[in-house]
Amino acid sequence: MMGLGNFSTRRMAALLRKEMLETWRDRRALWMAVCFSLLFPVMIAGSTTFFVKKHAEETTRLALLGAERAPLLEQRLRSDTLKVDALEQGEPRALLAGDYDVVLQLGEDFAGDYRNFRTPQLYLYVDSSSTATGRAERHLQERLGKLQQLVVGQRLVARGVAPQLLAPWKLEVRDVSTPSGRGAMLLAMVPGLLILTLFVASLATSVDTSAGERERLSLETLLLQPMPAWQVIAAKTLAVASMGWLGSLLAIAAMVALMPAMPLAELGIQQATTTAGVITMGLLLLPLALLVAVVQILLALRSQSFKDAQTQLSILQLAPVTVLMALDMSRVELDHPLWQLVPLVGQQQWLKSLLVGDPVSLPLVLAGSAASLLLVAMAVALGARALRRESLLGAL
Amino acid sequence: MIEVQSIDKSFAGQRVLRELGFEIPDGRITALLGANGAGKTTCLRIVTGLLRADAGRVLLGGRDVAADPLAARRQLGVVGDREGLYERLTVEEYLTLFARMQGLAGAALRQSLDAVREELELGELWKRRTRGFSQGERMKVSLARALVHRPQHLILDEPTRGLDVLAARLLRRTLLRLRAEGTTILFSSHVMSEVAELSDCVLVMADGRIVGNGSPAELMENTGSDNLEDSFVALAYGSAARSECIEGTPA
C-alpha cells in the first residue's frame, strides 16, 4: 500500500516544478503535441466540408429532351433530389459532359403512342465512365418505376380492374435520418480523436521523463533524494498529463474555432459547443489525461531502453481507437449507465453528448471521473514499486 | 560514521558481495579500490540505499539505510558514475531543485546556494543550462548538487574520471576541505596517485570481499611494496600477479 508518510508539499512542489520546466522546455515534444492537436480539427473540418459536398452531389441532375411531348412526366419526375431541366433539344453526349448526370429523351411519337396505349420509346443516356452515373441511373429508374406503377394503376381503374390485383403488397422505404443525425454521426469521430490526442501529445514527454531519465542516469540522482517514490511518479504524471491535456484543450479550441468555417448548417447541426462546453470538455478529460500519463510512464519504465519505450507507447496510442472501434463493431449496448464508469468509454460518451448539445449526468460524470482517478492512484502505487526494481537502475 | 555490516548481494544467482564489512569514521576520506567487476559500484549503491542487500545492513550516522532510507538520504550526498544533470535546467534551477528536495527553504536555501556557487567556482555557469557543459563543468555541478544541503556523508563513484587537471585539482581541494569540516567521505577510484594523496584509509575489494583495509602506508608495509599500486595489485590479484607486473616473469 502506498505510504503517505514523509509527505512534504514543499519537496513535492520543487519536484513538480522541475518536471514542468523539463517538459515545457522540450521543444521536440511540444512541437509534436501542438502539430497533432491542430492536425485533427483541420482533418475534421476538411471531412465535414467533403461530406456536405458529397451530400450536395447526391441530387441527380436530369436533362429531359422532348419534354414538351409529356409535360406531366416532367412534373412527376421532379423531386427534391431529382433536378429536371426540360430541354427542347440538345446533344446527349454534350449534355452529359456538361452539368447533367443523366439524359432522358422522349421518342418523337411519345404523345401519340402514350395516348393510344402503345408503348412509347424512352432513351436513357448515361456515361458509365462517370462515378456519379450508377447512382443517378438508379435514382431515375426508381422514379420512373414508381410513375409507371401509378399510370398502370390508373389505367386498370379506368377499365374497372382493382390495381391491388397487380400489387400484392406495397413497400415504402422510410429514411428516418435527418441532416442533423448524419452530422452527429460525423461528429461522433471527434471524441475518439480528442482522446487519441491525449495519447499522442504526451507520448514524447512520458518517454523522456521515464526511460530517458533512466538512460541518462538522472533518475538515480532523483531516487537518492529524501522523497517517497510515489511522489516522484506523481510529479512526473502531473507534468506528462499537463502536456497531453493542454494538447487536447488546444484541439478542442481549434475545433471550436474552425466550426464557423465548417458547413454545419447544411447538415442541420447547430454549433452546440459553447465556451462553457469547451471548459466542461476540458475538465472531463483531466482524469483521463492523468490516467493516460501514468500508464505511459509505467510502460516506459518497464521497457528496456528509450527506443523500446517509444515503440511500446506507439502501440499503446492505438488503444483508444481500437477499444472504441471494437465496442462499436461488437455492437455492445453502451447506453447502460455503468459503461460511463469505464475510463475511455465514459469520456467518449460524455464528449459525444456535449458536442451535439445533449446533457450529461453529473452524478455519472463524477462517478466515472472518480473511477479514473482511483486507477490513477493505483497506477502511481505500481509506479512507485517499479522505481524500487533493481533492474530499473541497470544493476543487473 | 558509515558502517557496513556483513552485506551479501547476488544478481541472478551470481554472488557479487560476500559478507562485506567495514567502518568509516567521521572526518575521514576512505578510498574503495578494486578491479572492474569487484563489486565497488554495487557496494556504493547499497550504501546509498539505491540497492537492497540480501543480508547484512548499512548504517549512516547510526540510521539503517534500508529501514529508514529517507532519513539516511537527508545526511547523504552522492556523486554517481554519471552526473545526472537535467540539460533543460540552468545550474541555479538545478541546484535549487535539489536543495528544496532536501528540505531547504528561505534564507537557508539562499545561503547554501551562495556557498556552493562560491566554493565550486560556478559563477559563470550559474544562469546557463547544463546542455553542452564540459566534463569538468558537469562534475562541478554534480558535486555542488551533492553538497548543497551540507551532508554528513559523501559518496563518490570515480569522481575524477574524465576531468582535466584543474577540475581534478578543484575536486581534491574540496574533498580535503570537507574532511577538515568533519564530513565522512567514501570514494571509488582507479587513480592510485589520487588515492595516495587523498585517503586516510584504503579498502581493497576483490571477488566481493574486502581483502585489504588500512592507510596507504599500512597497505604498502603489509604487502612489502614501495608504492600503492603494487600493494593494490598484490591484494586484488594475488602476489603472483604482482611479481608478474614487477619482474615481467611469473613468480
From TrEMBL, chain B:
SUPFAM superfamilies: P-loop containing nucleoside triphosphate hydrolases. Belongs to the ABC transporter superfamily. The keyword Iron does not apply. This is ATP-binding cassette domain-containing protein. Keywords: ATP-binding, Nodulation, Nucleotide-binding, Transport. It comes from the Bacteria. Coiled coil: none annotated. Residues 2-232 form the ABC transporter domain. GO terms for molecular function: ATP binding. It holds the Pfam family ABC_tran. InterPro entries: AAA+_ATPase, ABC_transporter-like_ATP-bd, ABC_transporter-like_CS, ABC_transporter_ATP-binding, P-loop_NTPase. It comes from Microbulbifer halophilus.
